[in-house]
Structure formats: C-alpha cells, structure tokens
Amino acid sequence: MKNTSTRRAGQVLLVWGLLVVAANLRASLTGVGPLLNRVQSDLGLAPAAAGLLNTLPLLAFAALSPLVPRLAARWGEERLLGGALVVLTIGIAVRWIPTAAGLFIGTVLIGAGIAVGNVLLPSLVKRDFPTKVGLLTSAYAMVMGGVAALASGVAVPIAEVAPGGWHTALGFWVVFALVSVLVWLPQVRTSGPAGPARRGQQLPWRSGLAWAVTAFMGLQSLGFYVVVTWLPQVLQDNGVSPAAAGWLLFWFQIVAVLTSLAVPRAMRWARDQRGLATACSVVLLVGYAGLFAEPRWALLWTVVLGLGGGACLVLALAFISLRAQDAASAGGLSAMAQSIGYLLAAVGPVVFGLLHSLSSGWRAPLLLMVVAAATQTAAALVAGRGTVAPTWRPGSELTAPAADHSAPTGR
C-alpha cells in the first residue's frame, strides 16, 4: 500500500513538473512581438536584424532537435531536460542585459533550451503515461498556449510601468524559468542514462508515416508563427487599430487554448484521428480563405483560425506519441518532426513577408497560407493512423523490441 501511494505521489509530481516545464516553452518567445518596435528603436536595429529575434529560436529548434535523442541516451531524459531548463533560465537573464549582444545571445540560449523541451515532453508522456497521451498532451498544450497568450498581453503593460522598460518585460519570465528548475529537480535525481536499446535507435527518415506526421507538425507550426508575426499588420492594413489588432492576436491564442480542451474527448470517440485532424485542418483553411476573400471580417476569421490552430497543435503533439511504438521511438519521431517542422516555421514568416513586399499587398501571402492549409489537410489523412516502425543502427547487437500494446495506437 505504501509503495502504491509513493508511486502515485511520484506520478503526480511528474505531471506537475511536465506542466511547469510546458509553461516555459513559449512565453519568452511570444512576449517579443508586441515589444519589437521599442526594441528596434532603442537598440537601433535594422528591420532584418529585428526579425531575427523571431527567427533565431526557430532555427535553434530545427538545428538541435535531431541531436536530442542521442543526448538523452547519454545523460537521461530527466537530466537533459533539467539542463535545458537551466540554459533557458540563463538565456532569459542574459537577454535582460540592455545591449544588442545580450539580446541576441540570450535569444539563442532560449531557443536551445526550448528545443530540448519540445522534443522530450512527448517522449516522457509516452513513456510514463501511455494510456493518457491525449489528455496529458492537451493539458500541457493548454498550459503552454495559455501562458504564451498571457505573455503577449502583459508585455507592453509591464514595459510601460516597470523600471527598465522592455528589458524588464523580457527578463520577467526568468522567475517562471527558475520555478521550473526547482520543480523539476526531483526528476533529475532519479534519472539515469538510457539503455542500449535506445542508443541503437535512429530517426525514422525512411518512414512515409513519419514524414506525414512531420508535414502536419511543420505546416501547423508555420501557420501559427505566420499568424503571430503578421496577423496584426494584416489587420491594421485593413482598417483595424493597432491596439485592437494586438487584442485580436491575444484572442486568437485564447481561443486556441480553449479549443485544445475539447480534443482529448474527440480523440476518445474516434477509432483514429484522421477525420478529426482533417476537419481541424479544413477549419484553418476556411480561416485563411476568409482573410483572403473578406479581410474586413477580421474578428470572425481570427476566431476561426484559433479554433483550428488550437486543435491542430494538440493533434500534432499527440501524433508523435500515438504513432510511436514506445518512448524511444517517440523521441526519434519527435526529433524528426520538430526539426523539419520548425525549419518550415522559421521560413514561413520570412516568405510571407517577402511575398507581401513583392506583391505590395496581402493577397499573395494569404494565398500561400491557403495552399499550406490544403497541404496540411492532405497530410492529416495519412498522419492520423498507424505506427511508425522503429529504426535501428546497423550493427546494433539488439533487435527491435515488440510493440507496446499498452498504449493506444489510435487505430
């Protein structure tokens, strides 16, 4: 009885740890956009240099994600995640330094820390809670999105009233990062290096299903970062005031968070996730098409994009766990999906802005998003069902383990 109580307490502590980690995976990024004009003016940054503040973390995600499974095999997932939280904390603190060098170095460190958390959270959920993948994925996505929305909303008010202005508004999130380090410490103490089976596994580059999951992850990420970067400007150029445009971006994120709550129940009702993922991708398609055809109905299309975007984020994260046979496979699939996915996300806002410059309007870039949503819809039909077979390094002395039938595969 005592062992059961201890194990249950340990699981509760782990869930809280995962949620606190998730709270730190977006806030230090989404708080930059509302302050970008002030940062650019105070530091004398060129527009291209200012744009790097949004792009650098995504490039860090793309570059580091494939390395995470190998590092986790050497150090253990809990220790690696604990180290990543320390790096994230240092990055936020460095970005508080009122210089351009501190700003950019801190941003790179933040991207590195978040990249590790992005990859490891789906793997830890698959390993420790294989029968509650949908519920816990929705929970941490909701926390991640909710704190990100809060960061967008409070960035300007903090900058206006706090000593240090925008420096303090960006550095404020170091408090949350320090809390996450402390909450995660008990998990670090119980961590150890992974066994030989995990060390022998490679990323599933040759799997068509893995590429479908990667496409779904990448395209929904591209859409999110395009909206976060450019939606306020699109709205302002169509007659919406700057303040109202900022609040519409806030409501986009809030609607996305609320929508994510409904996804686990819908997943339980369905035999697989193909229909749900396709329907949610179509909702995004309608939102982009609406902005393209009738941008004056900005509030309606912002809500529609939030409805589709929140559900698609949860599905993309859940696919990583549901399409994998075990935690090691989930780590490899997560690294692949997030490396390619965030590379797309990094390129998306740049291409969107370039099309705007070349066409002197928003119709061409919005048409690009319509095409991206249509492609995501096609990927959903494949990514919503099946299991990615684990890939092993040549010469490994171990054979692939049998499939973990304790976890729902979504079929």
Question: Mind explaining what this structure looks like?
Answer:
This protein has 411 residues and is mainly α. The protein has one domain (12-388): MFS general substrate transporter like domains (Growth Hormone, Chain: A). Helices cover 77% and strands 1% of the residues. The chain has 18 helices and two strands. The chain has helices at 2-23, 27-30, 36-43, 47-64, 68-75, 77-95, 100-128, 133-161, 166-171, 174-189, 196-199, 208-236, 242-260, 263-269, 274-293, 298-322, 327-359, 363-383, and strands at residues 201-202, 391-392. The protein has a two-stranded antiparallel sheet with strand order 1-2. The longest helix is centred in the C-terminal third of the chain and has 33 residues, at 327-359. Residues 394-411 have low confidence and may be disordered.
Give the topology string: H per helix, E per strand.
Answer: HHHHHHHHHHHEHHHHHHHE
The overall number of domains is: 1
CATH topology: Growth Hormone, Chain: A
**Overall geometric form:** globular
The average pLDDT value, as a whole number, equals: 84
Itemize the secondary structure elements and their pairings:
Blueprint: H1 2-23, H2 27-30, H3 36-43, H4 47-64, H5 68-75, H6 77-95, H7 100-128, H8 133-161, H9 166-171, H10 174-189, H11 196-199, E1 201-202, H12 208-236, H13 242-260, H14 263-269, H15 274-293, H16 298-322, H17 327-359, H18 363-383, E2 391-392
Antiparallel strand pairs: 1-2
Helix pairs in contact: 1-8, 1-10, 4-7, 4-17, 5-6, 6-7, 6-10, 7-16, 7-17, 8-13, 8-14, 8-16, 12-13, 12-16, 12-17, 12-18, 13-16, 15-16, 15-18, 16-17, 17-18
